[in-house]
Specification:
Blueprint lengths: L10 H22 L5 H15 L1 H5 L1 H7 L5 H4 L8 H6 L12 E3 L13 E2 L8 H16 L10 E8 L2 E9 L2 H17 L2 E5 L5 E8 L8 E13 L2 E14 L2 E9 L5 H19 L13
Antiparallel strand pairs: 1-3, 2-5, 3-4, 4-9, 5-6, 6-7, 7-8, 8-9
Length: 296
Amino acid sequence: MHRRPPSRPARPVRVLASALAAGALLTCAACSGGGDSEGSGADRESASDVAASPLAAESPLASLRTGKSASPRAEKSAAAVLTQAGAKAALITEADLEDSWTQVKGAAGWGDKLVVGKVDVADFLTAKTNAADCQKLLDALYDDTLLGKPSGASALTGFEESNSRLLYQVAAYDRAKLGASLNWLKTLPVKCDQFTATDSKGGHRTVQVIEDPVPSVGDARQGLQVTVTGTSGNEPTTLTLQLAVVRVGTDAITVTSGGLDGTETDTTKAAVQNGTSHLKGVLAGRTPPAQPGNLD
């Protein structure tokens, strides 16, 4: 059945009817509460797009609504700062080492005189600047400043067994300077592979530097073995030292071990592994279990 089309009204009436129809549609959309009309679906898509946008993800309000972090930047917390109490708590003890090592007081005053001497520049025919690096190494071995001076908290302790010593240090450093110190240590097996140093009495000592492996712990690491051959009391003497440095963030541990009886690699390895574990635990807010023998 065909419905007869209505007669065309005058223009003012058509305009009024259109306005009334539009008002009715808006009223229905508001009352429908999210019906199935095309317009309501578009509204939902638009709202979804806004909620999923990067700007919405950054919004604190979006966080409250979704229960998710506002952004990866908001989740990133400041790096833990090593305090003086934390540095002391991160020190190793006798229980962390093998064999019969005894923890001693006064390790800060150590410094083997066999490493004291003036580098003979004549050994460096084509690389005179290397002599300065080798002199810096000898001075750092005596002063226990292989990584330079700490910029923050620091602590050290020492152990003895027969004619051998082990010095353990943990400290906070400036990030850039710490990286530069590690890079400097890496160059020494080439720059200072062998040279001569003269002591205050004119005695000559031969110094050899080679790379030494370090357990794969921490964020970066470097190991060296330094051998100093000379005389002491008119007797031939050889001092052998293992140096191990491990970086954890902007903090680092340094192990110097050895003596006239040579080195004990297992002990150095234990000090490095256990020490790194202690430092990480302290930075994570954990306190290492109290152990006997912590004298420093």
